[in-house]
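Sample 1 of the test manifest.
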Amino acid sequence: MEVKRVAPVVWEIPAADGMRVPGRIFASNRLMEAVRQDRAALQVVNVAHLPGIVTASFAMPDIHWGYGFPIGGVAATRVSDGVVSPGGVGFDICCGVRLLASAFTESDFQERGDQVMAQLDRRIPRGLGKGAIASKELVGAVLVQGAKAVRAAGYGWDRDLERCEEHGTSGGADPASISERAVARGGGQLGSLGAGNHFLEVQVVDQIYDPAAATAFGLSEDMVVVMIHCGSRGLGHQTCTDQLRLMGQAMHRHGISVPDRQLACVPIRSPEGEEYLSAMAASANFAWANRHVLAHEARQAFAAGFGMDPTATGMDLVFDVAHNLAKIETHDVEGVPTEVCVHRKGATRAFGPGHPALPEDLRAHGQPVLVPGSMGTASWVLRGVADNPAFASAAHGAGRVMSRKKAKAHASGQTVRHDLESRGIAVRPGSVKLLSEEAPYAYKDVDEVASVCAEADLAAKVARLRPIGVVKG
Amino acid sequence: MPRQVLSHTADAGLEATATTFVGLVEELATGMFELIAPVDPAGADRAATVEVASPTVEDLVVDMLSELLYRAEVDDTIFCDFAAQQPDSHTLKVVARGCDSTSIELGGTPIKAVTYHDLVVRQDESGWYGRVYFDV
């Protein structure tokens, strides 16, 4: 496979052998070396075969080998004659990140950190099982209304909905497209983290790069913040499983073939395509609501730890972004405004300044883009910029560089915990053994990912966040 | 090599061999749950019977493993012992035994789903071979 550098941090795979568009990877030399170590570039090529794909099969700087799409993959398909592929969204539909500000500084946290971490440890359900904060009875309303439904049930604050992508409600959701099995599997998990790379982290604003944007986002240096990373839990996993099975059969009826079965797809404007988008939206609504409920509980934990009312914690929502979703958006394609379905699989929407979908108070600065690092490393707040070259998309994390098998062999969970705690990071794991799979050495350098985002005009730096407490599944 | 874990940057893979198709299914099912939490079958205290009907051997494998994951999550169970039967070429039946998952420590990341990525299920002169990747 030919991969040629076309700009300092842009690499292109020319269209060949059935590819409808070229592949385009945003990476530094060092990040590109990691790309060459696994099969992610081949997956960029495979995605370029999708019917109706326009401009390029893109990969963000945190690209790594996934299933079907690479993690960090972005593909826009024309609504008029293109396809939608559940593989471009993934099983964890609307997995994403939520960031809360606070009224506390690092020294405040040092005084009461043990109490806060104990509260978080006790209150945040995680790992296997059905532990959840909110009642399963809410799921019917959640599938239609998302975060709005749990707000109506008393969770969170009104302003949360303004600071959430889609205002926390994905339109077009049809609960009838969600199977009873999906509700049975995930309905009892509303308000839970799950496991794997999902977490709740207490962080400190370490450095501000864009003071005006940081102020608008509600961030200041030395502020304690809380980052929550999770998705639609078993409900989303089962919905994708159900839909993939149906789509695999339907794809042949539509005469479509793809290089990897996980890229199964159907025309967007087909009954199967419409049903998938409805089911995806309903699952996304579960994910928005899930993060909303977890944020509510995090406020309760801080309030209890500091001995104050939750409203005094200053834990306003900075923003909530999805990084596993397909969305119908309008973008310029060869100079013509075109309606496209933008698949972001491990990539974050990054609307630039002035976009009408952004809250009025953030519109001048661009959309907050949240890029979590790994345990023990920094996370980043970026902002959308004008003329993003990849359908208004940016990175979603550090990106793995080491398999879970190798990471586990590298050090024990106990060693990883000891290392983190010796660096002043409090750790509350659901399973100590699992810590080694998510250790910092298993990930790329998130600072470099953020820098490539900035250099490639995917997003601009606003603030760097440093972890001081980790709650893991 | 009855079964072994395959390296994957983000997720996890598994390959297995067996002399029969049902033996392959048993190996892959055992390996899948071992990735989540290795459990001694002697501690199994519950059983579930799962049946799927699918057009190809690849689909039978994916659908059965997906169904076992589903049953495990809704019934709070970690399965550890499997007896598979194939009543006809398009049907697969598994009796899975296991124990309560709420009281055990995870040995690995829970599996969200079974993928079709790089899926292989084939028979040759030496028996059956299967390879499957999971979303974790």
